[in-house]
Amino acid sequence: MKPLIIMGGGGHAKVITESLSLMGLEESIIGFTALDGSVELFNLSYIGDDSVILEYNKEDICLINAIGSTGRNNIRKKLFEEFHERGFTFANVTHPTAILSKYVDIGESVQIMAGAIIQPGTRIGDNVIVNSGSRIDHDCIIGNHVHVSPGAILCGGVVVEDDVHIGAGATVIQGITLGKGSIVGAGAVVIKDVLPHTTVVGVPAREVQKINGRLEKNTSE
């Protein structure tokens, strides 16, 4: 493993840092970047904002995208794309308690948190978070820049397109497709396909729309 730079100093960065320590990689961490120099990340060195990374040879280091994702994933996605286009590589992080089939195909900058389970035949794209205690069953296809939140369950053969956020404790039954940029609310139970750039909530999950700045269930069905 090349020396590592952690990008971000918030809550997700704390979880990532501990995972790296449990993986035996703590000594490989050069330090972390953040916009606010007063941020502390355990005993790691603050080395500056993200621009300081450009002072390093891209062949000599790997980056860790430790920006969290709640709903819209724009900041995390932008960070990955900007530095990836400059030729930097991002390391994967897998907590030692996660259970992965050997028949799982994983992209770049994938983070699999404590207690997650990923079953055979699953394909995971780039810059994905599979968060604590989530379960992805057989033959699921997960696109790029997806966040599967803590405790979420994807049954077999689910297709998750790019930029999707699946809320904590949500369940998606087998064979469902979640369209690009869609959001599944926490605790929702999805029993039919979700259109791109749509938010669904509830049991069973139904589309919501903004009315006077508030999210309301779509009752037109």
Helix/strand layout:
Blueprint: E1 4-7, H1 11-22, E2 29-33, E3 46-48, E4 62-65, H2 74-85, E5 93-94, E6 99-100, E7 105-106, E8 111-112, E9 117-118, E10 123-124, E11 129-130, E12 135-136, E13 141-142, E14 147-148, E15 153-154, E16 159-160, E17 165-166, E18 171-172, E19 177-178, E20 183-184, E21 189-190, E22 199-201, E23 206-211, E24 214-217
Parallel strand pairs: 1-2, 1-4, 2-3, 5-8, 6-9, 7-10, 8-11, 9-12, 10-13, 11-14, 12-15, 13-16, 14-17, 15-18, 16-19, 17-20, 18-21, 20-22
Antiparallel strand pairs: 22-23, 23-24
Description:
With 221 residues, the protein is mainly beta. 11% of the residues lie in helices and 29% in strands. The chain folds into two domains: 4-91, Rossmann fold (3-Layer(aba) Sandwich); 94-208, 3 Solenoid (UDP N-Acetylglucosamine Acyltransferase, domain 1), CATH 2.160.10.10. The strands form four sheets. It has a nine-stranded mixed β-sheet, covered by helices on one side. The longest helix is centred in the first third of the chain and has 12 residues, at 11-22. The N and C termini lie far apart (52 Å).
Supply database-style keywords:
221 residues, mainly beta, Rossmann fold, UDP N-Acetylglucosamine Acyltransferase, domain 1, nine-stranded mixed sheet, six-stranded parallel sheet, 2 helices, globular
Broad CATH class of the largest domain: Mainly Beta
Mean pLDDT: 93
Order of helices and strands: EHEEEHEEEEEEEEEEEEEEEEEEEE
The CATH homologous superfamily of the largest domain is called: Hexapeptide repeat proteins
How many domains is the backbone divided into?
2
Percent helix, as a range, is 10-25%
Overall CATH architecture of the largest domain:
3 Solenoid
Could you please say which CATH topology of the largest domain applies here? UDP N-Acetylglucosamine Acyltransferase, domain 1
Termini gap? 52 Å
Rounded Rg: 18 Å
